[in-house]
Hints:
This protein is an all-alpha fold and 231 residues long. Helices cover 73% and strands 0% of the residues.
Amino acid sequence: MCSCWVIEPGDRADYIFVMVFYGQSYVVYAVWAVLLCTAGFALYEAEWTLMIIALGTLLASLVPAFVADRLHIRIPMGFYAWIVLFTFGTLFLGEAFDFYERFAWWDVAMHAASAMGFGLMGVVFALTLFEGDKYAAPAWAISIIAFSFALAIGTLWEVFEFAMDTLLGLNMQKSGLLDTMGDLIVDTIGAAIGALAGFAYLKGRERWGLSGMIAEFVRRNREMFRKAPKD
Length: 231
């Protein structure tokens, strides 16, 4: 993310503003523009639900940047764009424009995207345990850790949906068992893709795609990966 820019210590508010809003991809700026314009239109038309969803989605897309700042983590531009697009797809398009009901494949796409993202996060988490040393553990072992991490997140989400449906009478599971199993199958595939990207990175194939995102994260957070090979 843009925290790779060098900012002299001083005004903390100015630093956070620059870190979050400067140097992002055009995709992120486009999503933010759509959300702000929608919120303004909804305010003008007194469409309060739409306005709340638009502003809520905007806020949710900013949270990872502020959390990363608090933890002194630099998120690569591409991965942050992924986060913003996922937030936009699941909250704004999914809820405000009812994409989950209008397009049968939308829920599948969102589950796959989130599972791949958590797979990448699992790889990064495993690497932090070894300070970035690619050879401290077999590549397949780190990939299994990443796969298990991503699948565990997906499973916990399905437990949450079941709890909400049971306790509050919601319908998050839609068709019940079929919906849950379908989501878990998609989560498994997405988690496997993320884990395979980690395997490719550990084997030195990191020039593009998801494995490239892992390499970029390691490069931008050298203090967390002291034993990682130098470029």
